[in-house]
Amino acid sequence: MAAKKRKTGISTNAIHGGVDSPVAGAGVSAALVQSVNYVQDFGTSEGMMYTRYGNTPNAERVQKRLAVLEGAEAALVLSSGMGATCCAMLALVRSGDHVVSSSWIYGGTRRLFMEDLPGMGIEVTFVNPMEPRGWRKAVKKNTRVIFLESPVNPTCRVLDLTSLRTMAESKGLALVIDSTFASPVNFRPIEHGVDVVIHSATKYLNGHHDILAGVILGTEPFIEEARRKMAVWGQAPDPFACWLLERGLKTLAVRVERQNENAMRIAEWCSKDPRIARVHYPGLPDHPDHEIARKTLDGYGGMMAIELVGGGGAAEAFLGRLEIFTHAASLGGVDSLVSEPRYTSHEFLSSEERSAIGIPDGFLRMSIGIEDADDLIADIEQALPQQR
Ligand SMILES: Cc1ncc(COP(=O)(O)O)c(C=O)c1O
What we know:
Blueprint: H1 10-16, H2 57-70, E1 74-78, H3 81-92, E2 98-102, H4 107-119, E3 123-127, H5 134-138, E4 143-149, H6 162-171, E5 174-178, H7 183-186, E6 196-200, E7 214-218, H8 220-233, H9 239-249, H10 252-271, E8 276-280, H11 290-296, E9 303-308, H12 311-321, E10 326-327, E11 337-339, H13 351-356, E12 363-367, H14 373-383
Parallel strand pairs: 2-3, 2-4, 4-5, 5-6, 10-11
Antiparallel strand pairs: 1-7, 6-7, 8-9, 9-12, 11-12
């Protein structure tokens, strides 16, 4: 009887997952095959490789690795996180179908759901994900998909999937999650019964602020359908982006573990400073979702947010004084970043609409990097108003 293969951990899988042991003479680092088209046998369509089909050597390598990391049957890499969300939805719904979505989602996804899907005859109902029975009440005969994001951008709320999974299963709906904030190091939704996982790989998965990419994960047949959509709608990634994504993934576990530790220390420090009115971090015991985060996540994440005493004006002065944190959109990389969702991801909502979903003016989203926590804390301390 063949020996049972030992199950490897996430750090090992991030480096070796999904690929065969290299043969003598092969590069330890995978070769970049920067080509759009590939030599093909004649007399057959078998083996046809083309970058837009998502079947090139660098795409296939990184797709296999991502599937192992998330515990999914298959993965598809695309040219952006939004490309991933769009293609996943195209593969799941068609005109006449209905989607129930959490209203706490990334601004770009919200625009897709508010403006573009309805224009294609796909109705979307938004629900407050914490409202008891809210999801169930929104489901209709033609509902096909339940969509959510957790942890939520930018409020860092953490949703409990248990009842949603039961409801989705009993009604035959696809449960789809944007798991960008967690990364597979902190949460693997498929282990919790989710059908489709989406990531903006621009963020933690790559981790170096230098590529735009997205991933869809799910069953083999579903990923095949998403790949068909990608081949037609054209959101395929360039081989070099796939190569950089594979390189970034190798350090995923160490980066995210360090980000978890740094964010915890910074959140604890911020929660004790009277110049900071509110700290949003699920690792803090007084966070509304701390218990669910403690039970379901393997780490509380590198994303947090603060609200300063003095609101929007104080936030702008604070941003002007920061020296290590960079004021920039995006998240999940090695550099610590800070941004104001009112001018970035949630700029298209009114001040009142933002407040209603927990993002008042002056709300500062912080993506904690892998610098020394002491230095990041010192940077925040010197940027806060000095007269207490
Ligand atoms: C949670 C979340 N999902 C999706 C996206 C979209 O990803 P991309 O910018 O790679 O298209 C973002 C981007 O900020 C995000 O934060």
